[in-house]
Amino acid sequence: MYRQRNFYRFTRQCAKELLAPWKFDVIMGFREGIAPKPDPTGALMVAEELGVQPASILYVGDSGVDMKTANAAGMYPLGVTWGYRPAEELLATGAAKLVASPEEIIPLLMG
0.85 cut: is pTM over it? Predict the structure, then answer.
């Protein structure tokens, strides 16, 4: 239980210290009482907190677990190839599209 609380605190601390120039409306890390990914509960909680339909969310991830989570939550699963797992895994676990750089995400948000 102590470890689980630390994950959430660590996620918030990383965002605060490493991503300070960017604003986040919601920060979701592994929390006690919320099933871990690929269970969609956490992702759906974020959608609800933001007041948006899951289908309108671009779920950006770098692992098969992320792609499974996005699909389970009814979100658009976008795999990034610069991260944790290979492109083949992302596609095999449900990525609708792959991008190789953050700049490739911008047109997806505009369309």
Answer: yes
The interaxial angle of helices 64-73 and 41-50, nearest 10 deg, is: 60
> Considering the domain boundaries, does residue 36 fall inside one?
no
Q: Which CATH number is 77's domain given?
A: 3.40.50.1000
Give, rounded to a whole angstrom, the gap between the first and last alpha carbons of the chain. Answer: 42
Backbone φ and ψ of 27, nearest 5°:
-125, 120
Give the count of domains, the chain.
1
Buried b (16+ CB within 10 A) or exposed e, 59-70: bbbbbbbbbbbb
- Domain, as residue range, for 59: 55-110
Residue type for position 75: M
Residue 86 lies in a domain: yes
Element (H, E) at 18: helix 2-18
Give dist(CA 25, CA 3) in Å, integer: 25
Structure confidence by residue, pLDDT tens digits, 30-66: 888 899 999 999 999 999 999 999 999 999 999 999 9
